[in-house]
Amino acid sequence: MATNNLVYDVADKPSWGKTLVFALQQLLAIMAATIAVPMIVGNGMSTSAALLGAGVGTIVYLLFTKSKSPVFLGSSFAFLGSMFAAFGGAASVSIGYLGLIIGAVFAGLVYVILALVCKYCGTRWISKLMPAVVIGPTVAIIGLSLSGNAVANVFGYSDVGVFAATEGQIDLHVGMCILVGIVTLLAVIITSVFSKPKGFLRLIPFVVGIGIGYVLALVLTGIGYAASNDALKIIDFNIFKNAGWDKFVGGWCPEFTFIKAFGSFSDGSDFSSFGTYLGTLAVAFVPVAFVVFAEHIADHKNLSSIIGKDLLEEPGLHRTLLGDGVGSMAGAFFGGACNTTYGESVGCVAISGNASIRTIWTTAAMAIVLSFFLPFSTLLASIPTPVMGGVCIALYGFIAVSGLKMIQNVDLGENKNLFVVSVILIAGVGGFAMKFVFPNDSYIQITEVACALILGIIVNVIVSFAKDNKAEQNEQEEQK
Predict the structure, then answer these.
(1) Measuring CA to CA, how many Å separate 122 from each of 33, 114, 289, 312, 318?
(2) Cystine design at 233: which of 85, 224, 320, 322 (Cβ 3.0–4.6 Å)?
(3) In degrees rounded to 5, what are phi and psi of residue 401?
(4) pTM for the structure as a whole
(5) Which tops the pLDDT comparison, 281 or 193?
């Protein structure tokens, strides 16, 4: 594994003042996606509880990985279909929260079993099944598949589908959102590129970018209120109004999933079809866990290339899997959503050059504390979508570039390598995804990243039986 160009390596310990700012940057990077999952699922799920669950899950992950893997765990989008199934299964809808926990346990057990396989059978089979020619373009697809979200956010849309339906139409409000998003992006770039090498500002480009973007959005919103022009109102101040200042539970204290789940036993729910419901949960969560396993490999390969240490060897893939699986169960217990290692967190490490594990520990603690501190969690939730869109263009782009860097030593002059890379890129960028729908309207969705990876593995296995052109030429020359 090559050496890294990090300012702070994994074991380095920045001062606590700097660490707090670095942790805030990590939190800002993962915040939008982490709270988006409960917002999409609905059914009264708490965004603060999801943030708490992410913090707890990350601490579990850090403990299992012996504090050697600097990445934050957040709510997994891959399990959205599974979570919908938990709320719409064969049993009463009111036990959906219990279903979230049971489903997370099913998924976590898959990770535990895979960890045991890796522990006792080694990981060489993974390297053969998913070499750089497969993992590299897959990591690139992780970033590229999110590009639509980043662009939609810059235009002021939180939903890619709604954004696509507008066909890029620009009115005054959309124009102001684009302005805010581009200014945020440029602030990140200028801070990262023109700041003093290894200086403090170069380590916190996202904090600077989000701060500048938020101030600009605040100014425009203020002008909008003064001029009674809704098109200039970029920040939604109703978030502050509806934050639940007068509530303890559901306001200052997150609505924990396990409390809602165990409340099902006393609310008269019908458990007569509980066996069928368990079957629904198993079908909804277990296959997705295998899909996310492949993404787990890609994320850790990518992070390994950034920090210059092979995480699949030390602390070991079995430990990262256990941390991810058990961390996911812990996260769902508190926040309802299964967790996964976040590409946004990996991108933050890559751009800032800060891989200090102290930062990740502090981020996890900060997420837990802030989930109980309503003013700050509300302020974070008020960051407008174009600001996060500007940041995410840089974040997702770095993830894509990190993947492409992994294949820089792959000989693309060989057709067999060229086919593997091209199949993965086109399938991923083209949106090759599949959804299997069951009679009870629950479904399993295999994302474009997973489909591209599976297709790439199949192609790579097939072409691996062919001889290299260079090897064949050398053999012919020897025969002459």
Answers:
(1) 33, 11, 20, 10, 9
(2) 224
(3) -65, -35
(4) 0.76
(5) 193
